[in-house]
Amino acid sequence: MKLTAEKIIDAGMAVFAESGYHGLSMRRVAQRLDAQAGSLYYHVPNKSALVRLMADRVARQAYDAGTAALAALPPGAHWRQRIEAQLLPLRHSIRRHPGGAIMLADSPKVLSPGAMSLMERLLETLREAGIPVEHRAVGADTLLSHVTGFVLQEQTQSPTRAVTAEDAAALRESFPLTVAEAGALTEDEKFTRSVRLLCAGLETLLPTTVR
């Protein structure tokens, strides 16, 4: 099999999905490709470069999905609709990759062009909306962090235990509001509403003349 950077990224993402960042190594990627570790370095110089390429792939796929969603909006769509059109596909894109949320969260640290493109477009959307310049970077970062945090919870396999009828009754008595709300919304509905709540908060920063 002829090695290419794309095949190495494919194998790296598979190893990352199984073992996480600390389990990822050029040796393990090479084993997955049935190749010698030294042969990978011609295409990808080290683990840090591989992580950067992996993060960039996830971010670029998300960026392209957002581009398609924005193009489907009607002309003159409200800025909040444009935010949703970027964040909803972003969530779906990174969910397709086990560990995708972690990769995307780390991508700004490795200067992924794809991740920076996501941030740039969000900043432009907030600028066009009229969000004051001193709040734009924090606002855009909060929106992106919300997506990665939400997906991280979705991708984390937490240990569970069977809940008896007695357990359920005790929980309802101790935490009636929490239990009543649990399961009231699907994850898709919860995510969409959470994005709208964040946008509603950002909207309070706008001058009253443009709200």
TrEMBL record:
SUPFAM superfamilies reported in the protein's UniProt record: Homeodomain-like, Tetracyclin repressor-like, C-terminal domain
InterPro entries assigned to the protein according to its UniProt record, in alphabetical order: DNA-bd_HTH_TetR-type_CS (IPR023772), Homeodomain-like_sf (IPR009057), HTH-type_TetR-like_transc_reg (IPR050109), HTH_TetR (IPR001647), Repressor_TetR_C (IPR004111), Tet_transcr_reg_TetR (IPR003012), Tet_transcr_reg_TetR-rel_C_sf (IPR036271)
HTH tetR-type domain residues: 2-62
Keyword Nucleotide-binding: no
Keywords on record: DNA-binding, Repressor, Transcription, Transcription regulation
GO function terms (MF aspect): DNA-binding transcription factor activity; transcription cis-regulatory region binding
Superkingdom: Bacteria
Pfam families the record matches: TetR_C_1 (PF02909), TetR_N (PF00440)
Any GO BP: response to antibiotic
UniProt DNA-binding region: 25-44
PANTHER family tied to this protein: HTH-TYPE TRANSCRIPTIONAL REGULATOR RUTR (PTHR30055), TRANSCRIPTIONAL REGULATORY PROTEIN (PTHR30055:SF151)
Protein name per its UniProtKB record: Transcriptional regulator
Organism this protein belongs to: Streptomyces subrutilus
